[in-house]
Each structure stands twice: as structure tokens, then as C-alpha cells.
Fold:
Amino acid sequence: MFGLFSKKQNNECPIDPKMRLWMENAFLWLATQFGHDNIASKPMLLPTPEHFPIRYDGSKESLIKTAEIVAKQMEIDINLITLDIYEQNIQEFRSDLGQTIWTEVDKDSEGLSAGLYLGKNDNGKYDVLIEKKNLSDAENLVATLAHEFSHIKLLGEERLDDNDEELTDLTPVVYGLGIFNANAAFKEHKSFDGYGHNSIGYLKQREWGYALALYSFFRKEENPGWLKYLTPNIRSDFKKSMLFINDNTDKVFIEEYKGDN
Structure:
């Protein structure tokens, strides 16, 4: 009736146009750095006991076992990493340590970080610290480790001279860990006074949906089975992003990002 279903749906891009171009160019840069064929064929890790056969009881053992899996997926020698746990405010770290610190931010914990990357220590190993509260949350733990290990891939392995948190957020996606970081970016919770959500990372919810859609498009996955592991909000953004990408295959991964010019 009234032509409601006669017109082709206008599938607009769910994220800012400049951000779209940045993300597509950044994705291709990462794929070039780590190998197009490698990214296209590397098995994706899922939040299942098969991929993470670990008891998440808040112990350091669970942290180490998880770190070993994430490091292997990201092609990092776990023996080059020193892991530790902390419970301090990020501002306290900045005042106590005379070195540059890169963090995985928890936006809803009043300045607390979820993880810290301290660079190489005097022994030539990468120092990575994880906030204790993440040890009992498998998804957050994997996401935080993946982000901090991305600092190793970009800064530690000297692919970048300057830190770029958005690019660091995107790196786990090309390594098949995007489910964890995307879900951690928007996690609903219920408390005595209602509903809310917590989030970690730097990319926004819709941007995570677009990042995963780019990953699926790059790997030629039309209907990936891993979609069911995404939170409903991220899954919805993924689907909107795929509609846009499929309608604009002449633009995606083709147009050049020119910054703010």
C-alpha cells in the first residue's frame, strides 16, 4: 500500500563518512602490515570453551593461560611479555612511573584503565599490566589483552612511531579477535536502580559494527557463523554496515582517506 515497499531501501552508512574512510584505509594498512592472505585465512577466535578452555576464577593463572592464547593468535612470542596485575588508578601510575604509558580505557570506571602497556623493560621484555577486575570477566580480559598486545604489534615492533589508540583498537579485528573487543565496547548490565552499560576501548559502538563488517567483507564471508556471538546492539550495527557495504562495493576499500582536508 501507498508504495511503502516499492522503493529500494536507502542503506546509509551507519558511521561518520570521514571515520568510514579512515577505517577502511586503516584496515588495509593493517592487512598489508600483517599479510593479506594471513588476515583472510586466519581462523577467528570465538568466546567458547573450545577456543578458551579456561576457568575464569580471577586467578593469575587464568590471565596467563588467556594471554598465551591471545599472543599465539596475534603472532607474538609470549616469552617476550611480562604480565602483572594492578588495582591502581591510572593517574597514580602516571605520577609514580617515569615512562610513557598506553592504556585500554574503561570509560565507566571514573578514570580507571582496563590495561596498561609500558613498553620494553630493562630485560628487553614488554611490560603489560591488567586491571584485576578483568580477571573474572573472560570477554573483557581477552579484549584488554588483545588491545595491549596490539601496542606491541604497532609500537613494540616499530610499525608506528607515535601511539594511535583507534588503530590499536582496530588491530584485534584483523587478527580474528574482534568479537571480544566489540562486545566489550557495549556491555549491558542490570543494577538495583535500573539498566545501564559499561564500555572499554576507544572506538564507538557503531564503529565496531562497521569494523567487523569490513572484516567479513575482506574475508568474503556473506553470512558468518560468528555473528551469533555478538551482542544484539553490535550485531544490529554489523548488519546495517553490511547493507551499506554491499550497496557500495565500488567505494569500499577504494576511496582514499585525506584526513581533515
Observations:
- Residues 1-8, 94-98, 108-112, 188-199 have pLDDT under 50 and may be disordered.
- DSSP finds nine helices and six strands in the chain.
- The longest strand covers residues 113-120.
